[in-house]
Write a structure and sequence with these properties.
This protein is α/β, with parallel strands linked by helices and 172 residues long. The chain contains six helices and nine strands. It binds adenosine monophosphate.
Length: 172
């Protein structure tokens, strides 16, 4: 099965900029069996732990995170790019593999004492996830771990995420 998941991720050289090998997950998402399997595996990363909410990262992270939250029967919370969330936000700037960005979280989206699972499609340099993790914990919630469908291991994103348990399904 892992081979089939692997084969459903398409490599696009030089997208969106020269030198970036973009991991295109759309063939995987379009396959019902493989998409379901990817959600099963992401859910399994939190086996045996209480999860109160799943936080997903704009934009491809929403696809996985929302499905994981639904499967677990818990709430979904978006971390979004600057200016997209309508209510009071907390924001943080970070640099990513191609460019710079600010991510925001609604101030009332997570609460002290809640157990949060962070989900994104891909861990590259770890800047995005580290910023999201900091936003979550700055609101007093407990980050039980971060789960990525894909990890680009050479970029050492794990190091930026500190001591949180980090899980990935496919590694390149
Ligand atoms: P980073 O902050 O460097 O870990 O970047 C992670 C975010 O950027 C993820 O949300 C991905 O959607 C996106 N991303 C970064 N690099 C790639 C890549 N090579 N292929 C696809 N998405 C990427």
């Amino acid at each position: 099965m892992i081979d089939r998941l692997n084969a459903a991720v398409r490599d696009i050289p030089d997208f969106p900029k020269p030198g970036i090998l973009f991991k295109d997950i759309t063939p995987l998402l379009a396959n019902g069996e493989l998409f379901r399997e990817s959600i099963t595996r992401l859910c399994a990363t939190a086996d045996g732990q209480r999860v109160d909410k799943v936080v997903g990262i704009d934009a491809r992270g929403f696809i996985f995170a929302a499905a994981v939250a639904d499967r677990m029967g818990v709430g979904f919370v978006p971390v979004r790019k600057q200016g997209k969330l309508p209510w009071k936000t907390r924001g943080l700037a970070y640099s990513l593999e191609y460019g710079e960005n600010v991510v925001e979280l609604h101030e009332d989206a997570v609460h002290p004492g809640e157990n949060i699972l962070l989900v994104d499609d891909l861990l590259a340099t770890g800047g995005t996830a580290a910023a999201a993790a900091e936003l979550i914990t700055s609101l007093g919630a407990h980050l039980i771990g971060a789960a990525f469908f894909i990890e680009l291991t050479e970029l050492n994103g794990r190091e930026k995420l500190g001591n949180y348990p980090i899980h990935s399904i496919l590694r390149y």
